[in-house]
Design goal:
11 strands, mainly beta, globular, 0% helix
Amino acid sequence: QVQLVESGGGLVQAGGSLRVSCAASGRSFSSYAMGWFRQAPGKEREFAAAIAATGGSTRYADSVKGRFTVFRDNAKNTAYLQMNSLKPEDTAVYYCAARYVNTLSTWWQQYNSWGRGTQVTVSS
C-alpha cells in the first residue's frame, strides 16, 4: 500500500497562488492515477482534480478549471496541484489520493490510499 503525505498548504490572499505537493512512498507510483479532493468545514468532500498514471490525461472540477493545474513527476514519486487565482471559497483541507489503476476517476470512493491533508486558507 502506498503512503501519501501532502505539503505546501498555507494562508494566502485572494488572487494569490499556492502549490501543494503529494509525496508517495512505496513502489509503482507511476502505475497509479492520482486525485486531489478538498473538504471545507461543514461540507462534503469534493473532487478538485485528477491525473492519470502516465500524466497524459487530466480532469478538473468546473469550479477550479482554468485556475488549477494537476501534474506529476513519476521520477520523484510526487504529484502536485498548482492553484492560481485563489478565491475564499477554495478554503478547505486538500487531500491527495492514489487509485491503484492507470485511469483517473472523479469519485473519491474509487481511490485506495489517502493522505492526511493540508490546510489551504484563502483570505478575502
